[in-house]
Amino acid sequence: MDLPFVGSSSHACRVAWDKGTARELLHRAGIPVPQSVGLSAQTFRDIGATALMEHVMHRLGERVVVKPTRCGSALGVTGVDGMGALPSALVHSYAYCEDALVERFHDGVDVSVVCVEDGDGLRALTPVAVYYEKGHEFDF
């Protein structure tokens, strides 16, 4: 089987796997990213839910998305509409990873674009819009 390797390099995969790192690199490259706060499970335990909710609400508002920093698909991701739901969303995220990223919610369409590199250079394939049903998690 003389098949060429298809896919991202191990370095690119490692960087993209960590949402905090990927977010920071995108920001440095001038690509707009939502405002966010990174929170470890230890910080959650040390500071407590009340102080944490006040800090997040002050920085990001009451509508946020909580996601594990290192996890695939939408595993551990929760939309929060009101700070009372933040602690349980963080606990859910921490079940997947010890670190969470809390981002300001932005309403809109989720678009995925696959890019491939061939003999002619880098090329974007057809964009795909992902629509979510309210109350349902994304699943392939």
From TrEMBL:
It comes from Stenotrophomonas maltophilia (Pseudomonas maltophilia). It comes from the Bacteria. This is D-alanine--D-alanine ligase. GO terms for molecular function: ATP binding; D-alanine-D-alanine ligase activity; metal ion binding. Belongs to the D-alanine--D-alanine ligase family. PANTHER family: D-ALANINE--D-ALANINE LIGASE, D-ALANINE--D-ALANINE LIGASE B. It holds the Pfam family Dala_Dala_lig_C. Keywords: ATP-binding, Ligase, Nucleotide-binding. The keyword ATP-binding applies. Signal peptide: none annotated. Residues 23-77 form the ATP-grasp domain. PROSITE patterns: ATP_GRASP (PS50975).
